[in-house]
Amino acid sequence: MRRPVGLVLIGLGAFFLALAPLVRFYVADQVVVAPLNQYQVTLLESKNATYFDQAELKTKTGVTLLAKNTVRGDVRANEGDNDIAVWDSTTNIYDQAKPDKPVQMQGFRIAFDRRTGVLVNCCGVNVDGDNTVRMSGYGLLFPIANVQKRDYPFFDTTTKQSAPMQFGEVEKVHGLTTYRFTQTIPLTKTAALDTKLPAKMLGLPEDAGDQKVDRYTEAYNTVWVDPRTGIPVKHRKNIRSTVQTADGKGKMIVAQADLVSVDKDQKAMVDTANGKALQIDMVRSYVPAGAIFFGLILLFVGGFLGLARREPPPIEAPRRADGKFGDMTPPGPQPPRPTPPSPASSEPRRQAPGSQRQQRKAAGTKRR
Q1: How would you class 233 by CB atoms within 10 Å of its CB: exposed for 0-12, middle for 13-18, buried for 19 or more?
Q2: For residue 221, what pLDDT is reported?
Q3: Is 295:16 a contact under the CB 8 Å cutoff?
Q4: Which phi and psi angles does 45 have, rounded to 5°?
Q5: Is 318 among the domain residues?
Q6: pLDDT tens across 291-334, in order?
Q7: Who contacts 268 (Cβ-Cβ below 8 Å, separation ≥6)?
Q8: Domain enclosing residue 62, as ranges
Q9: For residues 135 and 40, what is the distance between their CA atoms, to the nearest angstrom?
Q10: Least confident range of 244-248, 282-286, 338-342, 344-348
Q11: What residue stretch is flagged as signal peptide (predicted)?
Q12: How many domains does the chain have?
């Protein structure tokens, strides 16, 4: 019985050893990817912000601005190429006191490699409807499960240009060790406006008349990233948007805010990152290591049971035909057995009586 059990254990051990590289290099390649059907809503808040209220035609200060960002994956936009993920992002910035009147709306579509996070130009990518834009570097995600302490090129949708996201230092966000990256967007012309504003609104003498203006933006973006997954868990966008004349002498603030992810969404993103990191560790480390460990144990035990030298079974006493144990010597000529002496062997042996004639003759002799 030991040999069949040992062979079965050897087979199981070989199976687990073959399973380890399969999980590590094939299954992990299928699991460690960005999702196609992403859906995520995050909220950023800026207190003591400033913006120009177009309805009232005046600049408001000391207000609380909120930025609601929604990311939604379009699973059909990749035209059947499941190596590419296509995500749409919409950001609505509004005054907390007037949530139904947006201060600014921005939308864009990105496409990227699901395994590396690198942007690709396909599948209708655009920024605010401008599909002539060419994207490069990274977008909403850092390198998938492979974030290093170095700089990365990141595409800025406001300026429609790529700028370096520079590594700063390691920081904790709700107990999670993250890498902090910063991106500086210098003052950049983002739109040529077909409009003129009164000189007084631009800080110029009233006799200067109406002035043609363009829109300019500068920003200082900070992202805290989980290095195990590449998922950003906290954002900070310090933005300043202005309109100004061509010579830069006349200008007016359109929006100035220091937007930071609200605490509740930071915790939710930390939980998401921890869950994704566990999946990555399972297929990259825990399952392969466990398969190797159990495979070696099963091979050792199976080899011991199936290949070890066995002791011969004990010799049992033979059973005779009558059911009893004893000598099973085959029958054959047997030596004569000696006859034991009779108790009457000391007396003279009597002759057997003869025939009737002899008996009568003997009787007559006695009478004479």
Answers
A1: buried
A2: 95
A3: yes
A4: -130, 140
A5: no
A6: 788 778 877 777 777 666 555 566 665 666 666 655 555 555 55
A7: none
A8: 32-261
A9: 22
A10: 344-348
A11: none
A12: 1
Q: Residue 129: inside a domain, yes or no?
A: yes
Residue in the block written with tokens 């399972």: 282
**8 Å CB contact between 85 and 73:** yes
Whole-angstrom distance, CA of residue 3 vs CA of residue 334: 47
Identify the residue whose tokens are 């983002």: 190
> Is it the case that residue 1 has pLDDT exceeding 70?
no
Model-level pTM?
Answer: 0.75
Domain contains 337: no
Give tens-digit pLDDT for 142-152: 999 889 999 99
Provide the residue type at 275 as one letter: G
Domain contains 12:
no
127 close to 45: Cβ distance less than 8 angstroms: no
